[in-house]
Amino acid sequence: MSETLEWSDLAGWYDAKQGDDGDLWHRELIDPGLLSVLGEVRGLDLLDLACGNGYLARRLARRGARVVGVDSSAPIVALAEARERREPLGIRYHVSDAGSIPQLVDGSLDAVYSNMALMDMPDLVGPFREVARVLRPGGRFVASICHPCFDVPGAGSWLWERKEFVTTVSRRVGKYRVPFETATPWIVPDHAPFSTRSYHRPLSGYVRELARAGLAVTAMEEPDGSETFRAASPQGEGIHEVPLHLVFEARKLLAPHP
Ligand SMILES: C[S@@+](CC[C@H](N)C(=O)[O-])C[C@H]1O[C@@H](n2cnc3c(N)ncnc32)[C@H](O)[C@@H]1O
């Protein structure tokens, strides 16, 4: 069993891993899906929820968005701020839990995005309520997550089968229906294996909590890696068959959901 570490313990490693462009998985697989759903951002007010080292906030600020970043880890936010000091792009950062962001004013943002972080939150009621509060009516929430149907940490694995000279890949998944706390393993060169805490919930759980917060799902994408990703990642061909990530867009309803 690997050690479970907090994001604050991993701040330096995570900052170096994502750098200024995102690592291979983000750059060539996840981010293109999230950015295509987010669309044109020039002139928009955006929140990067659980922003990590802010590399994506920086990419979007360079495209002309006004971005604010929020993350609950003070050491990670300090590293994001250090990047901002080195190359100012006008990004403001706050240390706050996603479930309570008092620094942000009601109805002040065009879009909130969250990249690969909602699975780390034990409860989505507060975070989704905050997303709905800070969005303008009709504003959009775009998030990438581990695909709840195909990537259940601790209860999912690849099956590679070779029959009559043909290799097929599929996914075995269990423990889907009931939410549970689990651990996401990280394999890092020159480091003992470790995990971060994460929370599986079925797809219907996400949609139900979004609706309760007054957010209606309007788009979904299941990112497929680029040629570069497929060539570089041992999981690339598998992900081409069965997606491990999901990007959704939800819009703030003009009137509360009944
Ligand atoms: C996998 S990292 C993703 C960071 C960044 N979005 C990216 O794509 O590189 C997860 C981040 O979520 C943050 N986080 C976890 N739980 C949080 C919460 N309840 N509120 C705010 N941030 C949280 C962690 O501190 C960490 O920076």
Describe it.
Helix 1 crosses helix 4 (74-86). 29% of the residues lie in helices and 32% in strands. With 258 residues, the chain is of the alpha/beta class. It has one domain (3-148, 202-228, 243-252): Vaccinia Virus protein VP39 (Rossmann fold). The longest helix has 15 residues, at 24-38. The mean pLDDT is 96. The strands form three sheets. It has a seven-stranded mixed sheet with strand order 4-3-2-5-6-12-11, sandwiched between helices. Strands 1-10-9 form a three-stranded mixed sheet, with no helix packed on it. Strands 7-8 form a two-stranded antiparallel ribbon. The structure holds S-adenosylmethionine (SAM). S-adenosylmethionine is lined by residues 7, 18, 50-52, 56, 71-73, 76, 97-98, 115-117, 120-121. S-adenosylmethionine binds next to loops.
Record the SSE blueprint.
Layout: E1 3-5, H1 11-18, H2 24-38, E2 45-49, H3 55-62, E3 66-71, H4 74-86, E4 92-95, E5 109-115, H5 125-134, E6 135-146, E7 156-163, E8 166-173, E9 180-186, E10 194-200, H6 203-212, E11 215-221, H7 227-232, H8 236-241, E12 245-252
Parallel strand pairs: 1-10, 2-3, 2-5, 3-4, 5-6
Antiparallel strand pairs: 6-12, 7-8, 9-10, 11-12
Helix pairs in contact: 1-4
The structure holds S-adenosylmethionine (SAM).
Residues 7, 18, 50-52, 56, 71-73, 76, 97-98, 115-117, 120-121 line the site of S-adenosylmethionine.
Find the CATH superfamily. Vaccinia Virus protein VP39
Mean pLDDT: 96
The percentage of residues in β strands lies in 25-35%
Q: Could you say which overall geometry the principal axes of the C-alpha atoms support?
A: globular
CA radius of gyration: 18 Å
Looking at CATH, which topology would you report?
Rossmann fold
| Percent range of helical residues | 25-40%
